[in-house]
Amino acid sequence: MTQDELKTLVGRAALQYVVPGEIVGVGTGSTVNKFIEALAGMKDRIPGAVSSSVASTERLQALGIRVFDSNEVRELAVYIDGADEIDGRGYMVKGGGAALTREKIVAAQSRRFVCIADESKKVEFLGKFPLPVEVIPMATQRIVRQFEAMGGTAQVRQKDGQPLVTDNGQHILDVTGLQIREPLAFESEVNQWPGVVTVGVFAHQKASVCLLGTASGVRTIA
Ligand code: 5RP
């Protein structure tokens, strides 16, 4: 099976976690796009979704799924999202699509986080995928030096020759060369650096369940 087919497989499999009658939290990325396509088939059984990005909002609305502001909803039963890396404990690196801040917000208001990914995302330790960190631009160079002191190399993500601007009007640093052995402690530390909006380690908001697309079908890791 191709990577695209594996994404379709887990995107469809995630439907079983959607609670009829309840608003669903929706992440961002190519795997989530498969989930959104599948969700359209049961749109009459849910009031709608809370979305983690402008891109997902547009996709949901184009398929006739109502999108609620996160402030309109107290708690979500489930949040479905992809990952750039996931380890055996459900800790993840996310933000390859630059939506990490809103993803963390929606994950925090959800009782359950269902991660959908093809098997290439499963790792023993986080850190191989360049770690996305959303930052306030005036703090960029100091944060770059803080990562250097940790052994990492941080670069401002570019789009069309310019720094990429997130849905929140900020920039993204991609950090290579880190081995994140203690994701909870790492996330807590980097989060308190002034100018860091969100670090792409999802340890405090880890996955409750991971649906991994493999050549032999969907493997569920809970
Ligand atoms: C976006 C994300 C995505 O969930 C992550 O990048 C995985 O994307 P894809 O499903 O396209 O591989 O965190 O910010």
UniProtKB/TrEMBL annotation:
EC assignment: the record states 5.3.1.6
Task: Tell me what reaction this enzyme catalyses.
Answer: aldehydo-D-ribose 5-phosphate = D-ribulose 5-phosphate
Keyword flag Isomerase:
yes
- What are the binding positions for substrate in this chain? T28, G29, S30, T31, D81, G82, A83, D84, K94, G95, G96, G97, K121
Which Gene Ontology molecular function entries are recorded, alphabetically? ribose-5-phosphate isomerase activity
Q: Which InterPro entries match?
A: NagB/RpiA_transferase-like, Ribose5P_isomerase_typA_subgr, Ribose5P_isomerase_type_A
Which terms are listed as keywords in the entry? Isomerase
Q: What Pfam families would the database entry show? A: Rib_5-P_isom_A (PF06026)
Tell me the active site: E103 (proton acceptor)
What's one GO-annotated cellular component? cytosol
Q: What pathway annotation does it carry?
A: Carbohydrate degradation; pentose phosphate pathway; D-ribose 5-phosphate from D-ribulose 5-phosphate (non-oxidative stage): step 1/1
Q: Where is the signal peptide?
A: none
GO term, biological process aspect, one: pentose-phosphate shunt, non-oxidative branch
Q: What does this protein do?
A: Catalyzes the reversible conversion of ribose-5-phosphate to ribulose 5-phosphate.
Family statement: Belongs to the ribose 5-phosphate isomerase family.
Query: PANTHER family per the record?
Result: RIBOSE-5-PHOSPHATE ISOMERASE (PTHR11934)
NCBIfam families cross-referenced by the UniProt entry: PRK00702.1, rpiA
Subunit text: Homodimer.
**What's the protein called, per UniProt?**
Ribose-5-phosphate isomerase A
- Originating species: Ramlibacter agri
